UniProtKB/TrEMBL annotation:
InterPro entries referenced in this protein's UniProt entry, alphabetically: MetI-like (IPR000515), MetI-like_sf (IPR035906)
Taxonomy of the source species: Bacteria, Bacillati, Chloroflexota, Chloroflexia, Candidatus Chloroheliales
Name used for this protein in its record: ABC transporter permease
Subcellular location per the Swiss-Prot or TrEMBL entry: Cell membrane
Keywords associated with the record: Cell membrane, Membrane, Plasmid, Transmembrane, Transmembrane helix, Transport
Broad class of where this protein is predominantly found: membrane
Stored Gene3D superfamilies: MetI-like
Membrane protein topology class: Multi-pass membrane protein
Family stated for the protein in its record: Belongs to the binding-protein-dependent transport system permease family.
UniProt KW Transferase keyword: no
Gene Ontology biological process terms from the UniProt entry: cellular response to sulfur starvation; transmembrane transport
ABC transmembrane type-1 domain residues: 95-279
Length: 287
């Protein structure tokens, strides 16, 4: 009888195998990794689906005449017009003109902004000399002084490049100074204790320490550069995306105007992705 009971118990119950702590940790890490990957995938899906959903709603409202198609044409009509502009080659002249002005103005603003910003962050004397000028002139709307740039540089590309460079310079400068100011004091103490030269302090401590703030300024400055570019091309250009937008609106070619705005939005998106990629490469420790 006792033997039979033991056989029944062996058939109905399994002996639990001992579980090691390492296997529990590995399972936990695996589940955590899967959860993180699913969350990242879901975030990407939402970031793509949201604009598509808005375009779909816009298309439906336009087709049902719920919104005034004279001012808000259907997205399908805008994309069709954009395709025609690419096919005719008209958009390319405007696109390359705007890209060239933006790139040159951006570089002319970023390079001095980073260098002067780091020097201001390192040297209290330089900061005391320049900071009041920055505080006084930064709030001035840059597009408000564009007529002055037209007088100085003429109506060609020089005035647009100069006004973009000035707008970018302030954003990058202020972020760079903040980046140097927020470097952990232990790094500065190490540099001082080892009597690092000014060049070594600049290259090995100030610049790497300020890079996260510098890249934040670079991304913000790119958006500012596009805003200033379009505003400058409104009033003083015969080519460029800003000119396309303004001239199209002047003759009520609303679909052309939206096509120009769409290209500007795509430029802003691509520049942000490019800067994010460069940031991951240059400062991998920020991931």
């Amino acid at each position: 009888m006792e033997h039979e009971l033991l056989n029944i118990a062996a058939k109905n119950f399994t002996v639990a195998q001992p579980i090691s702590a390492s296997s529990i940790i590995l399972n936990y890490e695996s589940e955590k990794k899967k959860s993180f990957q699913f969350r990242q995938f879901f975030i990407k899906v939402v970031s793509v689906a949201t604009p598509l959903l808005l375009l779909g709603v816009w298309e439906i409202l336009s087709n049902l005449k719920i919104i005034d198609v004279r001012f808000f044409p259907a997205p399908s009509a805008i994309f069709s017009k954009l395709w025609d502009l690419f096919q005719s080659g008209e958009i390319w002249d405007h696109l390359w003109a705007s890209i060239g002005r933006t790139v040159y103005g951006y570089i002319w603003g970023v390079v001095p902004g980073v260098i002067i910003g780091i020097v201001m962050g390192i040297s209290p004397i330089v900061r005391a000399a320049i900071q009041p000028l920055v505080d006084a002139t930064f709030p001035i709307p840059k597009i408000a002084i564009f007529p002055l740039f037209l007088i100085i540089f003429g109506i060609g590309d020089g005035s647009k490049i100069a006004i973009i460079a000035v707008a970018v310079f302030y954003i990058v400068l202020i972020n760079t100074v903040s980046g140097v100011a927020n470097i952990p004091s232990i790094y500065i103490d190490v540099g001082q204790n080892y009597r690092a030269s000014r060049w070594l302090f600049f290259r090995d401590i100030a610049l790497p320490g300020a890079l996260p703030f510098i890249f934040a300024g670079l991304k913000l400055a790119m958006g500012i550069a596009l805003i200033v570019l379009v505003s400058a091309e409104f009033v003083g250009a015969r080519s460029g995306l800003g000119y396309l937008v303004w001239s199209s609106w002047s003759v009520l070619l609303v679909e052309d105007m939206y096509a120009g705005l769409l290209i500007i939005a795509v430029l802003g998106l691509l520049s942000t992705y490019a800067l994010n990629y460069i940031e991951r490469v240059v400062i991998p420790w920020k991931r």
